[in-house]
Amino acid sequence: MFCRRLNESQNEIMNSKVIDLVVNNDLCIGCGLCVYKCPEKALEMCWDDYGFWVPTLNAGCKQHGDCLDVCPFNPKPSEAIRTESELSNIFQDAPNYHLNVGKFFGLYAGYSKEYRLTSSSGGIATFLLVELLEKGFVDYVFSVRTSSNGGTHYEYAVSQSRQELISSAKTKYYPVDMSVVLSKIEKLKGKIAVVGVACFIKAIRLAQYNDPQLRERITFLVGIICGGIKSRFFSEYLAEKAGVSSLHCQYPKFRVKNLKSTAADYSFSCIDGKSNEKKTIRMRPLGDMWGSGLFKSNACDFCDDVTTELADISVGDAWIPPFNQDGRGTSIVVSRSDLAERILTNGITDGKLELETLSLERFMSSQSGSFTHRQQALTFRINQQGKSSVIPPKRFDKGKIPLDVKMIQLQRRKVRRRSLDIWKNTGNSVLFDQSMKADLHLLRKLTQIYHLRRKVLAKLNISKR
User: Structure pTM?
Assistant: First the structure.
């Protein structure tokens, strides 16, 4: 569904606060909570011109503000829920805290013996969700599965069985929204677990803050440690690189493991709807799709939550040796609630999980690139927006970064913008590669300079000991 544009006869329709302050400032992440919470049902989620879900008006709006209250990029939140730090007070029993990581019980790396090979990393999320469901902690799970809607590849759906949860395993680098699945809550009897990236989890917590019923119904949140939300242009580009027209791309899979190689050496695959053939392309030769900012949402550059701090448990990829050398995949894990910690402990005792405890230093090393980009370099990006920009309150607002990091930040921002504009105007992978070649080359060179400087400094530090 593509967004309608108001014509002259509709100009008298009042804009909603979330559209005024968030969508119009290119800070919408497409979670859909505003649609769910709008008391007048005046909003609906539609595709914008750049391949992202955004809310648009479908009726008159009285600007109650409910839509803005649940937005994870609300630029004017109340002091009580100003940032993730205030919202994380729900984890009062968590014994540990670090500014960059949030509150936590334990930090781990490992995998599920049963679900590892059917998951993107170590299968810990699938294990947890199955345990929650089969042991009666929850009755339903809201997670992302293959869509029954012809206009999108993936959507949030309700799972009630182990098999449904297995079918929702693996990360989907494709835009989804929660509005439709959340609208089913009132018809479901029982408790619910929700899986989501940091901004989606934050939106749920914001909705729960003013809604006791939602707190009672949604009792467990599984957070996916995220490298950024991608436009649907990303899957279209990869399909074309694999030899499939974006019009005929079906069942895209973004993390096809190579069990004989390293964790980073995975592939993209999809079905060609025209020939019914499966086409695959290795991701590594395509270059850095994450550090470059290609096809990324602008809002992601103003998120400072690296570890999905508001989830009961967060899982991601263990990008440190020796784990990153294992193509079968290994999860990095942060437990924040007592229930999450108990499920992990029982899983180890029962022989279902292979987990080892990580030091804070090793854990942070596994996500070092994200900490540098999302937190250390955040102030620089905010300053680049100018004083008139509308940015939500942030916790990392005094960081200083070296010149090479500043140059990388500027180039990433340029690559992000140009990638969306070029694909929107061409929709052709050959033309896209030609148009982006110079910018990506410069970004690689700047990144090489940055890594070289770090190596030199590391050697100097070692020699001083």
Answer: 0.94
